[in-house]
Amino acid sequence: MGVVGLLYVGAVLFINGMMLLGKIDPRAAGIFNLFVGALQVITPTVLIILGGNDPLTILGASGIFLFGFTYLYVGIGLLGGFDTTGVGYFSLFVAIMALGFSFANFRLLNDKPFGVIWLYWSFLWLLFFLLLGLKHGHLTAYTGWVTAIEGWVTAAIPSFFLLTGYWQRWNQNLLATLLAVFGVVVFGGLWVLMRKRGELPSRAGPRGGETIAAH
């Protein structure tokens, strides 16, 4: 059930990335954030109820709430035109907690690929904090690209392969390594490329993220 929700997390991240890049109207994106936010709150609630008192089930489900609350927060903010500071600082909380969930996946759940994916999410939500909480508007385009890419790499593609059974057939250590290398190379390379093109000025520009939310 959680895997199905992950598929639509990929969709909402892609849409929000396109919104940050100016391709989608914020209010239009806000509606879909509400859909996915509701799904990501209902899903872990059901998983916890059905899972009884199993600690690992509760642990896994608890992480989903972080994203569900984020998307609801963003959707309401976009539709209402509210200031982004609150969702920005909530994103800092998510970024920190994602490090804990990464550790849990590596050590408790023995799921190294998702241990790496949680690091991806920690990095992305840190960008949301810098953009929305601290108003570093010069990060808008970079954050948009990272958001859109992570929508596919950390959610849509893994969920599809999990649903079809192919994910489990691959060597998990190799998969985790490939994900880690991909993240460093692509996001590091994207940063360098955008700096060379002047798309990442050293100081924040006029786009301060006041009404644009990204997750």
TrEMBL record:
The chain crosses the membrane at residues 6-24, 31-50, 56-74, 86-104, 116-134, 146-168, 174-193. The keyword Transport applies. Keywords: Cell membrane, Membrane, Transmembrane, Transmembrane helix, Transport. It is a multi-pass membrane protein. It is found in: Cell membrane. GO terms for cellular component: plasma membrane. It holds the Pfam family AmiS_UreI. CDD domains: UreI_AmiS_like_2. InterPro entries: AmiSUreI_transpt, AmiSUreI_transpt_sf. Belongs to the AmiS/UreI family. This is Transporter.
